[in-house]
Amino acid sequence: MRYFIEIAYKGTKYHGWQIQANAYTVQEAFNRALSTLLKEDAATIGSGRTDTGVHASQQYIHVDTSKPLQTHPHLYQLNALLPADIVAKNIIPVAAKAHARFDAISRSYEYRISLQKNPFLKDMSYLYTKPLDVAAMNEAAGILLRYEDFTCFSRVKTDVNHFLCTIHEACWKNSGDLLIFYIRANRFLRGMVRAIVGTLMEVGLHRLSLEGFEQVLLSKNRSAAGRSVPPDGLFLTSVVYDERIFERNDKGE
Q: How much is the pTM?
């Protein structure tokens, strides 16, 4: 039986989502708790990878089990086993071929910049107090929607087959003492959002013109783009699927 489990986590003390040989990750912590609950090895597949220190307010995983899972009481039991900075929010039965990663239609991220020191936002935002031209940053963000090749914002050493992404939305908004970058796309490259934010901040500081920003995209060269901003402010906020993926017949197909 295959299930999707909706989870969220504070990524501060983890080396990203995906299991690594010599580092503690969210997936490792989650697999341990789920294996204890099921009394069998649980191998999960996530909707995507988040890097060290990155958070998720919504992430989906899928898992195959030999025993049926129910929202109650298994959700309560699973959360009792999970660390305090990881929560399971829902358990959803899905078709046997449903895939948390490959069936995702779009993913959304937010990058949160704290405009003044706030102890309650420590590890959950990037403190940056220099003035930024948000209007110029939004003009540059709009340019992203006209392109599909984002090689310039990808980590140099990565195992993807191509660097093409379709960005559906990219904009900055003020929310109190936070400046938040919203971006939604069909897929993201490793390090892509943090590199985009770092480059847009160069525009906001008037160190890079709109024409220069477009030249960065055309260069397909990571060294032409801006710095990668710290992970603290990055959140995976939404993963969207076709609703039919959650429809399962009596045979689980």
A: 0.93
